[in-house]
Amino acid sequence: MTTLPETSDERATALAALGRTRELLDPGLRDWVGRLPEPVARVASYHFGWTDSAGRPGAAPAGKALRPALVFGCAEAMGAPAAEALAPAVAVELVHNFSLLHDDILDGDTTRRHRATAWAVFGSSAALLAGDALLVQASRVLTEDPLGRARTVTGLRWLAEATTRLIEGEQADIGFEERAHVSLAECLAMTERKTAALLACACALGALWGGGPPERIEALRRFGTHLGMAFQLVDDLLGIWGDPKVTGKPAGADLASRKKSLPVVAALDSGTPAGRRLAERYGASRGRSAEAEPAEIAALAELVSEAGGRAWAEEAAEREFTRAMESLRAAEPAEPAAAGLAALARLACRRDH
Amino acid sequence: MTTLPETSDERATALAALGRTRELLDPGLRDWVGRLPEPVARVASYHFGWTDSAGRPGAAPAGKALRPALVFGCAEAMGAPAAEALAPAVAVELVHNFSLLHDDILDGDTTRRHRATAWAVFGSSAALLAGDALLVQASRVLTEDPLGRARTVTGLRWLAEATTRLIEGEQADIGFEERAHVSLAECLAMTERKTAALLACACALGALWGGGPPERIEALRRFGTHLGMAFQLVDDLLGIWGDPKVTGKPAGADLASRKKSLPVVAALDSGTPAGRRLAERYGASRGRSAEAEPAEIAALAELVSEAGGRAWAEEAAEREFTRAMESLRAAEPAEPAAAGLAALARLACRRDH
């Protein structure tokens, strides 16, 4: 991927922000997960990578904690210490992981971050209930934040609204797999719900806890929305053309599962001859012999490119990224938080190294 | 069942309270469900009995709405108009139905209130997401209650705590089915979580919204806890000895599924010869021929009685009911709400007509 160049300084800045996020976040996150009833906490601890399937302490690679990093960065951008936004940072991470636990059940995915998914280890009942419990715990974190009082109700409303959009997006995504035709507009609307809504909420909650005025909060919310769209577009590009050594998924993973990702839908919806040929083969060639499949995936990827799906997604990612940066500037963020948020955004949208 | 006699006046009072509850509740409940994204709302509307599986308006029998009736009654008992407690009444009913949607998936139950369950009609993915959405919507109802402001954060915290207990209870209940031995203490603790916690929360929220002082709120919370325990004990008795024409379930339904309900666990845990014979046969005789099964169920029911499980459950139900009434009096409830709550409690604990 050659889009969205980043300097080595910027990369160092982003990695520092993510490292500091884990330091600030983890004690609070572990505390709140630890307050759950024991059988539920066991499943959740495994899911977060803190324990192995037998409950022994382990150190599986943690997620990037991008959403909490945005909460902290946006609070600082409004002039508050990051630590004051711990409650919303924990809450958005809990909601994100509620959605991962349920999505893995719904999608039947058996691995995540190179480990067996929670439902694959503990069964779908235990994973479903653990997801429910994390969702409830996200509310509790906000209701019990001593620093929150005046903004708690607003924060809870925003978080609930974003979660409803996330659920709506997941529902739409599942529906797409069963439908012959999905328009690009529908796929973009699904992405806004499934991915961008919670990133936007993370930014807005950080700015709210940071004491920002409404118009600056809304600018940071737009930053999160555009960043979320760019992030998903890049993720979808990597799902087809990403390096397996970097992504941790097999080459062309999204094509292997015949997923209706954004570049694919753009190609299918392009009205080009290549798009029509792709439509005839996508799905129909699924279930071929394992030997024939790598060649078929390469052919499908070539058709997505030829129909303009790749170029469209790269341009759309750059456009969304540019808008995210414009929204960030409009929020008049304080330094050095502003540079940190810009670096985080670029890292999130350039995951090829 | 001869326990917990009720007068015809009391019965009329209880039915009037439930009827009025539906009138007060339904517009708000339908409004909040209607605000959900369309595919989720369709599943929820079917689940609530408002539409059939094709989305056409229908009039399937609604649930009793016992929890909202307790919210309204407890608000009135503290001297406030019932209508002022609409938000918590809608919220507890949403949480209750979130748990029904997920429980039906987890338990594999294909019918509820004489209709196919939501997952059986729409698939488990759609039902799971609809449950998630109802849970989130319960928070939204409270955050947007214009009458709530000062008590919203407390109410949200109580509702989240009760929901966590409910999830813990469901998790324990599932675990019981896989275990050879469950103690009566464990089974009672599970019941307190799975059934009593949300009924207690309904009472406490009604009292809070009704403006009651802490000690009267806590007395009504205890009323709900004891009522919940009595309710579940009676439900478990009906699951073995209930009249199929009244319960809507086949005779001995809980024995047919070899459920570890309270009378069964009391019998298994009794240390009596009949209890030991029951332990040998329970589970082991599952999966016999369909012809042999009715005789086996009758034999199992007889062993539960002989081991004292039935008498224990009847006495425990009466004891919990008595404690519920004592707690109700301790709350110094205003009339006529007090009489309404007592009548509701008796109806909930005597479902044999």
From TrEMBL, chains A, B:
PROSITE patterns in alphabetical order: POLYPRENYL_SYNTHASE_1, POLYPRENYL_SYNTHASE_2
Keyword Transferase annotated: yes
Keyword Signal among record annotations: no
Key words, A-Z: Magnesium, Metal-binding, Transferase
Pfam families in alphabetical order: polyprenyl_synt
Matches recorded under InterPro entries: Isoprenoid_synthase_dom_sf, Polyprenyl_synt, Polyprenyl_synt_CS
Family: Belongs to the FPP/GGPP synthase family.
Protein name: Polyprenyl synthetase family protein
Species this chain originates from: Streptomyces millisiae
